[in-house]
Amino acid sequence: MPARRMRGRLLTLIAVGILVPAGVEAQNSVTLTATVSETVNLSVAPNAIEGGVVSSSGNTVRITLSGGKSPVIRVPLLVRSNIGFKISAVFESQTAILSELLVTDVRATGRLVSPQIVNGLHTGPQLIPDTSQPLFVVSGPRVSLGGTLTSPNNALQITVLISLKQPVPESLIHLTFAATPLSQIQ
After folding, report:
1. For 37-93, how does the pLDDT look when each residue is reduced to its tens digit (9 = 90+)?
2. Under a CB-based contact definition with an 8 Å cutoff, are residues 77 and 61 in contact?
3. What are the backbone angles phi and psi of residue 126, rounded to the nearest 5°?
4. HSE-CB for 91 with a 13 A CA cutoff
5. Exposure class string for 145-179: b at 16+ Cβ within 10 A, else e
6. 47 vs 43, 72, 110, 126, 160, CA distance in Å?
7. How many Cβ atoms are within 10 Å of 182's Cβ, its own excluded?
8. Are 128 and 88 in contact (CB under 8 A)?
């Protein structure tokens, strides 16, 4: 019996020796490769639009208003991004006519907003030639230096002023703002 046990152990030792090379070294480093998704988030400051319905989803804000109240609409958009961004708008109405769309105010909401953001913004034209196409509103570099998509201190508040030629009673107005990421290399 002792010879049989010895042969079994010897065969196991030889089999392990064949499968595991004698010169195996411990691995000293690990390389991890990852990417961060390019994110641009758009929302509206809470309770900012009176008499309208606001829906926000990721990079899109849709506002529905019944016209006739005022020829001027102010929309305080909140932008959070980890990359450059571009915001465009679509104006839709059967009766109201858009006369002006412009950025009137820009301000950081806290310490996690890039200090270069305000000087890096490019705004669109003030006069509206054609509303059948999306209208360029603003573009700029990365906004957020940290935080999440709901952090109170990492958004840029951009106030957009929309002027109508004249208020039309009972008109329905749809404003859709959409933000898209812009690559840093262009």
Report:
1. 788 999 997 778 877 888 889 999 999 988 666 788 899 999 999 999 999 999 998
2. yes
3. -85, -35
4. 22
5. eebeeeeeebbbbbbbebbbeeebeebebebbbbb
6. 12, 17, 19, 26, 16
7. 18
8. no
